[in-house]
Amino acid sequence: MHYFSKAKFFNFCGLPCARLDADKSVHPEDKGIFHPLTVGPSMVLDVMLFWAPQAHYQDLRRVLVDECINAPRWKGFSRDLMAEWNGITIYSTVMLAVDVSFLAVGNVNISTSQSVGVIANYLSTIFITGSLILSLLLARQTQKYDPESAEGAARLLSNMMGHFFGMRALATVHSLPYAMLMWGMIFFAISFLYNVFKSTTVTMLASVVSGSVVVTMFILWFIWAAREVHIFTRMAKAIQGFIVGNSVS
Fold it and tell me: I need a labelling partner for 23 at 20 to 30 A (CA). Which of 17, 30, 153, 229 fits?
């Protein structure tokens, strides 16, 4: 009965403004109005972080509504986060070993510090290490609070949210391990392809270029099929919101 009483209190049961859906706010929402100081950095971060913050933001909006935690959804949300970060930790460990091993290859001249391949490999190592550290820190931070406790979850999310960007700041923090792992893989691919292209036969060059083109096409095909990138739609909404915000002011 205590749980039901608290749920009725936080959802304004019996009042005209009662919350009818668990993931809907009782306060009037801004219909696509964006603050001009936040829309620019938000879009840039989304692009740099491979649109991962937007996915985490949508998940957070289902868990945290009007600064109130939906306890049943929080349990599944925290389990999914821990599984994601544990998986990224394994991938980061493997990639870190690959980066260090790649520097021991005979044709990779570490003494040539200005080499594009060496610099890209160093950047890959830095990003992979950052992804590994962030995954461990975020997992440790989440484990400090009881997954069954809604109060502990509310304290955790409130402490991690920024005052200016709000929930988007927390979504960006949650997406950093994945994004840094992706950047580490991209820089490793640059380092690998540079070392292949700088000294190889025509036959080997044609094979590597053909394979790279095929793999790139498959990746772009998946991104387009999954509709992970809605950059033009988001840009249109941002411009429309900016125009509406200026007309209202």
Answer: 229
Give the integer Cα–Cα distance in Å for 201 and 189: 19
Radius of gyration of the chain (CA): 23
* The two three-digit tokens of residue 129, written as one number: 């290490």
pLDDT digits (tens, 9 = 90+) for 132-189: 999 999 888 877 765 556 666 666 676 666 555 667 888 888 899 999 999 999 999 9
128 close to 92: Cβ distance less than 8 angstroms: yes
The residue ranges of the chain whose pLDDT is under 50 are: 30-34
pLDDT attached to residue 242 = 56
Gap between the Cα atoms of 64 and 12, Å rounded: 16
Amino acid identity, position 8: K
**Checking phi first, is residue 109 left (phi over 0); if not, alpha (psi -120 to 50) or beta?**
beta
Q: Enumerate residues 6+ apart whose C-beta is below 8 A from 144.
A: 156
SS3 at position 64: strand
Q: What pTM was computed for the model? A: 0.75
| Residue whose C-alpha is closest to residue 238's, from 54, 48, 28 | 54
